Amino acid sequence: MLCCMPGVAFVPALLVSWSSAAFIISYVIAVLAGHVEPLVPYISDTGAKPPESGVFGFMINISALLAAITMYIRYLLIEKQNESSHFVWPSCNMFTLCMGLMGCTGMGIVATFQELAVPSVHDIGALVAFGSGVVYITLQSIISYKSCPRWNTYFVCHIRMAISVISIIALIPMIVFASKISVTKIDWTPGEKDYTYHFMSAICEWTVAFGFIFFFLTFIRDFQRFSLRISTEIHED
């Protein structure tokens, strides 16, 4: 089905499908193994112990790669559109790409340095991934408005900005509540110390994560109009 999509729309479609599967599969394995409680664990909690840790690390690293490819194609698309419309500064487009790639790097750190093994590095990676990711989708929302009405509809722009605003609103309490948790653990039970902070922070984390997924879903239509061509030149002596 992905191969039948016009242009390069299969790239964000694959990113959305793969990332959703990564979260869901790791969650199901962790719950069935009894490693986490079913009620809103941290995303990282679902990949902290084997066997789900291997699945989580592998799939999230692939997601980071697919996200980087999607962001680079998006950068090229805006660059091409900007040649005729001049709706955004090239430096702004480049800065947005850099923020996105920084978020992908954070994802790679989260997947590689697991929560219970190296918690400080894992937390830094998560902060970079979520923080840079929110900045990226917010800048992309602004760029989308600037490209209207030629390259985007206002309806799509409104959806992107709504996702960005929700993600920003969720990111702040996610960080605040997480900073109040005094112990690193994954086996939380209701009523114990810091459980409320954990619960609220986890809800916000899942909100931001799926905000990213829904945001990239809106790229599919744009990518349908864009094709990449690789040309090779052979020079004879």
Explain how this protein is built.
By secondary structure, the protein is mostly helical. The protein has one domain. Helix content is 68%, strand content 0%. The protein is built from 7 helices and no strands. The longest helix has 34 residues. It starts with 9 loop residues before the first helix and ends in a 14-residue tail after the last helix.
Rg, nearest Å:
19 Å
Number of strands: 0
Shape descriptor: elongated
| Fraction in helix | 55-70%
Count every helix, treating DSSP H or I runs of 4 or more residues as helices. 7
Poorly predicted ranges = 231-237
Give the percentage of residues in beta strands: under 5%
Mean pLDDT: 91
Q: Let me know the largest β-sheet.
A: none
Structural class of the helix and strand makeup?
Answer: mainly alpha
N to C succession of SSEs: HHHHHHH
Termini Cα gap: 45 Å
Task: Write down the domain tally.
Answer: 1
What labels describe this entry?
0% strand; mainly alpha; transmembrane; transmembrane helix; DRAM/TMEM150_Autophagy_Mod; 237 residues; disordered C terminus
Tell me the layout of helices and strands.
Layout lengths: L9 H23 L19 H34 L4 H23 L6 H28 L7 H26 L15 H23 L1 H5 L14
Pfam families: Frag1
GO cellular component, one term: endomembrane system
Protein name: DRAM1 protein
